[in-house]
## 1
Amino acid sequence: DTGVSQDPRHKITKRGQNVTFRCDPISEHNRLYWYRQTLGQGPEFLTYFQNEAQLEKSRLLSDRFSAERPKGSFSTLEIQRTEQGDSAMYLCASSFLSSLGSYEQYFGPGTRLTVT
Amino acid sequence: DAKTTQPPSMDCAEGRAANLPCNHSTISGNEYVYWYRQIHSQGPQYIIHGLKNNETNEMASLIITEDRKSSTLILPHATLRDTAVYYCIVSPNFGNEKLTFGTGTRLTIIP
């Protein structure tokens, strides 16, 4: 399967612990996005990368959150000192410039985080 | 980013055409209309997008009104696998491509 992959698929952690999620985009995709989705809501944008450069961060991305894409391929999202409000599905997406000039985003299956 | 309005839920009989409406009355001239869907417990899936002309691909058709203030996604022969939440999104084609999802329309296909 050559789609976007995310690891782990599920994570249960205790409040105050740090967690790290990994996203492997579709190869040759130069853009990578992170979104967060809570129950009953649509995904909310967190941040995105063009190659290894982080180009935009949402106000949702507090100081406890950090994302990296060190070599322009896979990305990691770390949450420090987790809080119960961080419980959500964390979605990764990647995109490329198509022949139509558009940036369709291809999403991974997500990492479901539960903070107890 | 322009905002969209969609009905919270719709039902459609299996085999019939599903028509999902979307209002985007504040859309700007450089903004495209995108449709994504999210099947339960999966990540969103791109369906189709358009600027002002009607578009069709293997999954669906997109009809955009002449004033571009609304659009309709058409699934021509709905199957049970089309049960999902459908999101209508407006976004510039270049530059700021982050997607702003609303709450979407939950489409249920009835056997």
Note: The mean pLDDT of chain B is 92.
## 2
Amino acid sequence: GAGVSQTPSNKVTEKGKYVELRCDPISGHTALYWYRQSLGQGPEFLIYFQGTGAADDSGLPNDRFFAVRPEGSVSTLKIQRTERGDSAVYLCASAPIDRPETQYFGPGTRLLVL
Amino acid sequence: GNSVTQMEGPVTLSEEAFLTINCTYTATGYPSLFWYVQYPGEGLQLLLKATKADDKGSNKGFEATYRKETTSFHLEKGSVQVSDSAVYFCALRDMNSGGYQKVTFGIGTKLQVIP
């Protein structure tokens, strides 16, 4: 079946602009995670959704970052007033409710802020 | 807080060589431990896992044993192939932390296997 998909695959923007990154999880997966992976580093947790609600948003670096999942499926990560330090690969993962430890990752969105 | 330390790469091996990638962790509770793999141009995939002390996770010829006494989860394979070339990430999920669904990753170790 279809895996986790993320769009766009690449995004180039200018400092100060607003960006939205989309994640389509595997159908039926209630858990959804966003991570950020900087060059040469492992993925860094940003936020976790269980259904429509953010169960844990402790990884969001500041209030410029926000994520939603209004219908419990697709999620959008929103970054306001982008900064060059936001450049990274943003990863999305989903997991079924009965196996929350088994996360299926998407290919990521590579964000470059000029 | 939780942390994962793994050996820095890159690691370059000849085909059929023995592989060890070291991983140690720090956690406040009783974590589950994972190895993820990222092949070139692909997303992260779960390779294997272990949920309690002395468990051995295994998949595709790779193995790792959860050693609570040494807080380690080293990845091993007896005979690597060129197709094993990838970046390997050690990770933990702490069941007792406030963000109980949060997974903490290491920095990743790049493995290159040459024919």
Note: Chain A is about 0% helix and 50% strand.
